[in-house]
Amino acid sequence: MISGSPSVPSRSAALAGHVAETLRGRGFELAAIQVRELPPAELLHGRVADPAVAAAIALVERADALVIATPIYKASYTGVLKVFLDLLPQFAFAGKVVLPLATGGTVAHVLALDYALRPVLVSLGAQHVVNGLFVLDKAISLSDRGVAIDADVEARLATIIDDFAASVARRALAPSARSAP
Amino acid sequence: MISGSPSVPSRSAALAGHVAETLRGRGFELAAIQVRELPPAELLHGRVADPAVAAAIALVERADALVIATPIYKASYTGVLKVFLDLLPQFAFAGKVVLPLATGGTVAHVLALDYALRPVLVSLGAQHVVNGLFVLDKAISLSDRGVAIDADVEARLATIIDDFAASVARRALAPSARSAP
Amino acid sequence: MISGSPSVPSRSAALAGHVAETLRGRGFELAAIQVRELPPAELLHGRVADPAVAAAIALVERADALVIATPIYKASYTGVLKVFLDLLPQFAFAGKVVLPLATGGTVAHVLALDYALRPVLVSLGAQHVVNGLFVLDKAISLSDRGVAIDADVEARLATIIDDFAASVARRALAPSARSAP
Amino acid sequence: MISGSPSVPSRSAALAGHVAETLRGRGFELAAIQVRELPPAELLHGRVADPAVAAAIALVERADALVIATPIYKASYTGVLKVFLDLLPQFAFAGKVVLPLATGGTVAHVLALDYALRPVLVSLGAQHVVNGLFVLDKAISLSDRGVAIDADVEARLATIIDDFAASVARRALAPSARSAP
Questions:
Q1: Cis (ω within 30 of 0) for the bond into D9?
Q2: How confident is the model over B100-128, as a mean pLDDT?
Q3: What pLDDT was estimated at residue B146?
Q4: Are B48 and B54 spatial neighbours (Cβ–Cβ below 8 Å)?
């Protein structure tokens, strides 16, 4: 899981966390990268040899699949997310299944997922970018007691997680899944 | 196969034809829709009840997978292709695997595949838009004796066709593959 | 004015008509191209020598500025609009000011204007694509008595038309405005 | 000028510097923001109250026009650039003229300017995003003695700078140029 929100707490990170819990319940092993917790100067100056940055990149390399979550700012993914994606090798997502998730204050930004984020994920060589979800901020409540997600969003997430899990499982059947493009 | 070239002969149609022959050789059953051969007035005025248009739409509905080929004009897919896609039901590609192919005169138009065409295919509900290919016009020779495709393009096509065929085959294993989003 | 709706009556054409009337009231001379009224076979097969098609292309060439209206289908502009744009010379919009307008059933398609249509207009060499407007279908009522547009949309249109008219007027001051890129 | 390269020296920053020198020679007053020199943690965590970050944002607010330069990574603008754009007010570019510049290793990334960067600049309310330029890395040589730019690129830059300067000058004639959208 890669979360690209600059703020804490974050609705997009909470959304990704909910997806992660569901996947863990199905036997997936998960690791989370909160980009904002990586060393800021190393990220911005592209120092991939920094141990914390290198460890995050290695996590991506070892993953079979990725959940990528971002709020939508200025009609696109966040700079925070892109700063991390910029540090990855050119075909870092080759052979991997990717699930994109976004949150935003207005339905008017829905298409940012497919017109802005998806081309970047494809350029990283993703084997399959499954159909993701854009969720309105107001459908996610953050409080001291945790995260509450609207029932209709949870239902749509369940379908999307099914699709994602099935794609990861099918991928395991494909002998060439890990080959570079 | 859906081919969206306005001209005959067409390099993008020839490219799609080459992919089709390869797929037929692997046991796939194929049907081709040349949009430019459908009744022009019915297409442009959105008359989906016209028998020829309705038959083309029914072919799309019955397909497990689609190869979609277009030349790149004005930094995007052709109007001819989009005229046909506009007539399809909202989630016409639900549960289907889609392979996008494009041809163009300049490498400068490569990204039109991912930034322009792919979002439209995703909006049609495609289950998996596999990584497609942009081919330079000069790599495809059309003559009376048939089509000749540069060797390096053929090699890349072979990998892409493998990936596409594997995705279609894996899809057959997924019980929910045909459900709408 | 270029209107790319496949149907009659059309909300996007009505929107463009409203803008046209306002511009006429300010002393602009206008000509309208309804793509769906051009000869369908000639459009689809790219026959630019056809007299009706050639006349429409000549209108574009003579224009100082263009209003381009399209409904949003499948997360993008219509194929009908693109079929006509595909017939234009490569830099047909060089030195011209362009105002893009779109209509759609859902706010979720707002970004199609900037992510899908604008790159095509820029590729045609437009000197200035002013900030356009996406209008919800329900804000435009079509009836026997004519077109009714919601007051808040009319107010936003007024600002946009001001901006467009000012850009066309400023353009007249620039000696190089008609040079190709 | 806003430069979004993570590295030093940078071809995109050199390109922007060349444009800046030319504009200075024409009487423009310029200020440069190198995003990578702003405090990294403050940038990534969105702390707009930090004095250095606040000063950079104030520079943008005071500007009549902006030159924005970025290398293309992963088929889009850099995260470093977007991190800064994300901190700006929603309509920070209202009434301003914007010139986008990009550099990249391959012509295949040309369209990233219009499909990825331009929609973000438009979402910031830019009054006019003039036609920018994508320059191949190999056309810009960096050495101890300074920057050398290929003659044909310099010639195209001269035309683009003319267009940009004319748009800024015309803007000064428009009484409403600074109003928000």
A1: yes
A2: 97
A3: 85
A4: yes
Render the burial of B85-120: b for 16+ CB within 10 Å, e for the rest.
Answer: bbbbeeebbbbbbbbbbbbbeeebbbbbbbbbbbbb
Give the angle A46-A36-D38 at the CA atoms, nearest 5°.
55
Stated pTM of the model: 0.95
Contact B108 D106 (CB under 8 A): no
Which of C118, C163, C170 shows the shortest C-beta gap to D173? C170
Pairing of strands B140-143, B2-3: unpaired
d(CA D72, CA D135): 10
In the structure, what pLDDT confidence band is assigned to residue D149 with cuts at 50, 70 and 90? very high
Residue A173 has pLDDT above 70, yes or no: no
CB C7 within 8 Å of CB B48: no
Which 8-state DSSP code applies to residue A107? G
Average pLDDT of C141-161? Answer: 93
Over 70: is that where the pLDDT of A180 sits? no
Residue of B96, B109, B131 to mutate, testing the A interface (most A Cβ within 10 Å of its Cβ) = B131
Could you read off the pLDDT of A50-107 as tens digits, one per residue?
999 999 999 999 999 999 999 999 999 999 999 999 999 999 999 999 999 999 999 9
Q: Count of alpha carbons within 13 Å of D68, Cβ hemisphere only?
A: 30
pLDDT tens-place string over residues C110-124: 999 999 999 999 999
Contacts of B52 in chain C (CB under 8 A): none
Enumerate domains of chain A plus CATH numbers: 2-179 (3.40.50.360)
Give the number of residues written for chain B: 181
Contact present, C67 and C2 (Cβ < 8 Å): yes
| Closest residue in B to A125 (Cα–Cα) | B131
For chain D, where are the alpha helices, taking DSSP H only? 11-25, 40-44, 51-62, 79-85, 112, 118-123, 151-173
Residues D33, D31: Cα–Cα separation, whole Å: 7
pLDDT for B169: 87
Q: Whole-angstrom Cα distance, residue C96 to residue C164?
A: 11
Does A128 contact chain B (CB < 8 Å)? yes
Measure the CA angle with vertex B66, ends B63 and B67; round to 5°: 150
- Taking CB atoms and an 8 Å cutoff, what residues of chain A touch C112? 111
> In the beta sheet, which residues pair with residue A2?
A33, A68
Q: What is the pLDDT of residues A106-130, one digit of tens each?
A: 999 999 999 999 999 999 999 999 9
Confirm if C80 and B79 have CB atoms less than 8 A apart.
Answer: yes
In this prediction, residue A95 carries a pLDDT of 93
Token pair belonging to C45? 């097969």
**D7: Cα separation from own chain's centroid:** 16
User: Position C108: which residue type?
Assistant: A
